[in-house]
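Example record used in the benchmark description.
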Amino acid sequence: MRSIPFFPYSQLFTAQESDLTAVMLDVCRRGAYILQKDCRDLEANLARFANVKHAFGVANGTDAIIIGLKAVGVGPGDEVILPSHTYIATAASVHMVGATPVLAEVGPDHMLDPADIEKRITPRTKAIMPVQVNGRTCDMDAIQAVADKHKLIVVEDAAQALGSKFKGRSAGTFGKFGTISFYPAKLLGCFGDGGAIFTNDDAVAAQIALLRDHGRNADGRVVAWGYNSRLDNLQAAILNFKLKTFNEDCARRRAVAARYQRGLGDLKELALPPAPDADARHHDVYQNYELEADRRDELRAHLESRGVRTIIQWAGTPVHQFKELGFTVQLPRTDAFFKRCFMLPMNAAVSDDDVDYIVKAIREFYGR
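Model output (structure tokens):
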């Protein structure tokens, strides 16, 4: 029986073992560990890739959001509207700067619903934080229109969306800042934790530079309270190496998504994510392939019996369902989505034969 893992973690290294070993040995032999040339080069290359003015490497994607929020002045007494369809880190980052996360519904595309945002705005609302989930960018025109109408700032959690675009503009570059995660299974992943912050605002950039490095300025003098959140230089070198083939990896993901679409698009029991060319405004890069399915749990068990591993994102729990954290908001559309959603294997290592095998197993389950 074929065995298809949800994500082949070991292949992150073994597929390019000799090249990656050379990268790591070079860094270690130079003794280049903290904020060295490798990190500066990565930041410059990321800024160029995303067409953004400033990029900063930080220790992880959660720190990226916390530092970004501090840099734009979000704090105690403020509210930030974000979707419940996200990882807990998004809401936790708002909490950790002393503000209140206000959770909103998903729209038909499973992204933050611009219409629902307006229902959540209060006199304390300071920011809207769209989450660019699964390698897709939200309808940023609609979100920005709400923000402009109510004089709110937009900040982005684009942890899952490096390379994604809306109307030709990169995820993470629409708001006052945007954040990226380099967790190993992300689109561009390192061999541990890592993250980045994008901004086109010089004043925000100056604050981020201080906050990520103990509040030290360019002269090494501490001029503000800050964090120890610098992207590890070894990870930066690895990411810089992998960035060279990143566009090819994203193209492969899009090809896998197109093949799923061709094989499964006619099944009324499924609701698939938008196909790669379904909407000219969106360039999706498919961090994940998240779909909805009738009899989801039975289907997942069937796929497991055929050697296909699947997962339900975030252990099947949207943020508003964490009652221990004090959330009481009712989000019926998000609840309904999480009763049906799960994710198929999606990464650059998935072969056409793998996709065809998965498609055949799903069609078999539904009697096709």
